[in-house]
Amino acid sequence: MVDQPRSVARCAYCRAQIDPSSKSRDHLFPDFIGGTLDLQLPACATCNNDKIGKAETHLARRTIFTFHRHGDGLQPRKKNDPTSGLIDGTVLLEDPVSNSFTQVKFRVGTGPETLPQIQVDLATGHALVQGDDAKLVGTIRTQMQRRDDGSIALPVRINFVKTLPEATSAEYRPRIYLDGRDKLWVGARDINEAARLVGGIIAAVNGRAFDRDQSAEHPRWEVPGPAHLHFQLEYDPVHLHRLAAKIAYGALYLQAPEQCLDSEPLDAVRAFILGERDMPDGLVAEVDCDPGWPDDHLVVLYEVGGYVTALVQLYESRLRVKLPVESAELVAELPVVAACRRDGSETRWSTKDEARRIPLCE
Questions:
Q1: How far lies 208's CA from each of 26, 58, 169, 201, in Å?
Q2: Among 156, 158, 118, 162, which residue's Cα sits nearest to residue 137?
Q3: CA distance 358 to 330
Q4: CA 198 to chain centre
Q5: CA 239, CA 246: separation in Å to the nearest integer?
Q6: In the predicted structure, residue 220 carries a pLDDT above the cut 50
Q7: What is the pLDDT of residue 13?
Q8: How many Cα atoms occupy the beta-carbon half-sphere of 221 within 13 Å?
C-alpha cells in the first residue's frame, strides 16, 4: 500500500497555510519511539514544535516509554546535548553494601550517573557528599536570598519520594541535589523533613562546612558493583491520549480526500491533539486486550457502524480512537495498517494481505 499524495500547502493540524520554504514535517509515529519520516504529515513549526512536540517530549522523558527506548537501543535525539534523553523523574540507585540510596540521572543510551548531592542524616547531622559538590555548593550560595528580617531563604523545588520503596526505609537520607539540568532540588519524605534539611544546609554552607579544605569530613564515593534502580515517574495520561489521537488522525489524513478533512468534528479532534481543548467525549479509550499483534507500533483503521475507528498500539499500550469520519469517504479499502519498527529502522504501510491478517480487539 502507498500513501495518497497530499497537499503540503496547509498544516495538517491547524489547517493554516505553510510557508513554502519551511522544512517542518511531523512524523506519523514520533521519532522518540522509532518513527521515521517515511510516513509524514505537513505541519507548521508552531504546531509541530510548540504544541505536539511538547506533549511528545513529556511522554519521552517522564513515562515508561523512556525505558522502552533505552531497551530498544534508541539514541537521544541530540547525542551531544547532555540534557537530551534524560528521564524527568526521581531516579535512585540502591547500594546494597552501604544501604544508601544515591540520586542519579539516567539518560537513554547510557547508564546511571551520580548527581551532585548532599545527603544529611538529620538525627546525627552527618553529611554524605557525592558528585561535583563544588558546583552544588556554588549554586546554593548563588541562590540563597537574605530577607528584610535578616533571615536567609533558599528557593528549591521539592520532590516528595512518597511512592518509592526507600520512602519507608530508615536508611533514606533527605538530600539537596542538582538535577540533570542543574536545577536545585530537595528530596524528602514530607515538608517538615524538607524544611529541616534546607535550614541545616543554609547554616552549613554559611559556615563553610563544605569547603574543599574541610572535605575530609564528608566522604565522596561512587556506588560500585551491581545495584538496583528505583524510579518515581509522575505524568499526565492525557498526553498519551493526545498522541494516540494524533497517530489515528495522521493515518486518516494520509488516506482521506482533502474535502473530508475540514469539518467541525475533526476541528475538535485537532484542537485536542494540539492541547487547545479537553478531549471530545468518547474520542480515545484505553483497550484491555492482547490481540497478539507484532511488537511493532501499529495503527489500524477499520470500520465500525459506517465510521472510521482506529486501534493504536504503542509498546504495551493499546488505545481505541473513534474518528468522526464516515468510512465511505476514505480512498483506501479498510482495514488500513501503518507499522513502525521500535528500533527506528522503518515506518511503512502494510500490504492489503498483511492488514487483513491483523486481529482486532472487540
A1: 52, 39, 30, 10
A2: 118
A3: 19
A4: 29
A5: 10
A6: no
A7: 96
A8: 15
Instruction: Give the containing element (helix H, strand E) for 206.
Output: helix 191-206
Distance of CA 349 to the CA centre of its chain: 26
d(CA 63, CA 58): 8
The residue ranking higher by pLDDT, 67 or 54, is 54
Place of cell 528584610: 148
| Residue 305 in grid coordinates | 457502524
Distances in Å between the alpha carbon of 11 and those of 7, 26, 42, 131, 345? 9, 10, 5, 47, 26
Phi-psi label, residue 266: left if phi above 0, alpha if psi -120 to 50, beta otherwise: alpha
Q: Which three cell numbers mark 25?
A: 514535517
CA 359 to chain centre: 29
Dihedral of CA 267/270/276/282: which sign?
positive
**Which of 27, 13, 11 lies closest to 269 in space, CA to CA?**
13
On whether the CB atoms of residues 110 and 75 are closer than 8 A, the answer is: no
- Residue holding cell 495503527? 299
Indicate the pTM of the whole model. Answer: 0.78
**Which three three-digit cell numbers place residue 29?**
509515529
Please tell me the distance from the alpha carbon of residue 148 to that of residue 154, in angstroms, as a whole number: 14
